[in-house]
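Why should sequence recovery work at all? Because a backbone constrains its sequence more than one might expect. Tight turns favour small or flexible residues, buried strands favour hydrophobic ones, and helices have their own preferences. The token representation captures these environments compactly. In the example below, the structure is given first.
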């Protein structure tokens, strides 16, 4: 058994998809690669879905130059149906 890198639930060592959160487990590579993960939640600018600020775009680009790969994103709505935050999931290989 091992833990899913996305939801931390116990899954089969040979799993390709997590049975709990349904994430694809690309990091279950046969070569034994190890990954580290971070989650960022930038606030959307403006009142209704006007994108992210230039600072957030710059931070995402900085993460990319440090080897972080954006693997998933999800909008988060807390009021009035608009997107207030984004949840961004990044991974990079541990050397």
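From this structural description, the recovered sequence reads:
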């Amino acid at each position: 058994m091992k833990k899913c890198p996305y939801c931390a639930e116990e899954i089969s060592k040979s799993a390709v998809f997590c049975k709990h959160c349904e994430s694809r487990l690309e990091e279950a590579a046969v070569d034994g690669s190890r990954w580290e993960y971070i989650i960022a939640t930038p606030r959307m600018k403006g009142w209704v879905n006007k994108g992210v600020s230039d600072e957030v775009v710059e931070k995402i680009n900085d993460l990319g130059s440090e080897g972080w790969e954006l693997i998933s994103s999800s909008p988060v709505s807390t009021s009035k149906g608009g997107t207030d935050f984004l949840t961004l999931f990044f991974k990079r290989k541990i050397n």
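A few observations help interpret the result. Residues 44 and 52 are 5 Å apart (CA to CA).
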